[in-house]
Write a structure and sequence with these properties.
Elements: H1 8-24, H2 29-36, H3 39-50, H4 61-78, E1 83-84, H5 103-107, E2 109-113, E3 117-123, E4 144-150, E5 152-161, H6 162-167, H7 171-193, H8 203-207, E6 213-215, H9 223-231, H10 235-238, E7 242-245, H11 247-254, E8 267-268, E9 271-272, E10 275-279, E11 295-303, E12 308-321, E13 336-349, E14 355-362
Parallel strand pairs: 2-12, 6-14, 7-10
Antiparallel strand pairs: 1-12, 3-4, 5-13, 7-11, 8-9, 9-10, 11-14, 12-13
Length: about 375
Amino acid sequence: MERWDCADTLKDAATGRLEALQRDDVKGVAEHVIRYSDPLYVEAFRAFARDPETFAGDLEPEQRRVWASNREYARAALGTAGAVLPSPMDPAITLTNEGVTDPMRQLARVQVTNSKSHRFITSAGSTFSYDAELAEVSDDTFTESEITIETEKAQGYIEASLEVYADQPNFATEVARIIADGKARLDAEMFVKGTGATSPQGIFTELAGTASDIAAAGEALTPDDIYGLIESLPPRWRAAAAWQLEYSTVDAVHRMWNPTGTEPPLLEGGQLLRRPYHENSEFDAYSAVDDTAAGTNRLMVVGDWSQFAIVDRAGTSVHYIPPGVIRGANGRPDGRVGWYCTWRSGSGVLVPNAFRMLTLTTAV
């Protein structure tokens, strides 16, 4: 990791993530991290990205040994014949976009695994009591609930002409950057609006129509809506609560400053009603609310985000498509090469009561 060429903030955050994975050693993730962060493998992968067809002849003996060993491990443990991204480049392992991350990954419980799914155990806790002398104690055993989050397949495909491929000296870094950016943008959307069918289950999908889905009083956002939302959150989850909302909604709330002339500001010092708030561009925008048309606008969610889980299956794999495989309209090669990448992630709410979502509905 010390040899990784990136901003210090990104390197420090990624190093901490890798150390935590190795410390916890969850289902072989530590071995994955160690294998695919080996400098010999990283250099071999860069050679592969530059020239997937003849790169092996350019490798040093130790690079060739590590490459072969890790490819065999990928087939046996990860079930992929593709080249696995090095850990410092893998968006399932490291933070992306030079330290600016999706707020979901900053706030949620993130679990990296080498299996298809991950099980979480939740409980409402036990209720104890004060009793009279010699009174028999009640059975206060807590009830456990098991939540299983499945990882779903995401995929992407990148093409380039042979000319671009040959003329770009840092193509390995560029491919990794494009994959990381595409993954970050897709995940940002799915963690909010994903259906859970063949994608992660988004927070909107989980909370819609439940007791955690709170309706705004009218067709315009008011301070009472915001006060009422956090007041409806149970005290157990209020202490660690944080908000997520879209930028134009932040602006709308900011304009409500001191609405009666005697109240403190709603927004102050990076906090909304004394709880931190985070911009999420995938939330419905207040600027898009149209009170002349029917619509459902989910404007903000407040809650304890440790009760929203993201599960990443370690091992983003990349398959090279050589010249001649991709053909033009007449079935003849046209000088293109490609990279097919795939990864698996899932998400879901562990405790719906730990959140409150404000929904503003408009009618014609």
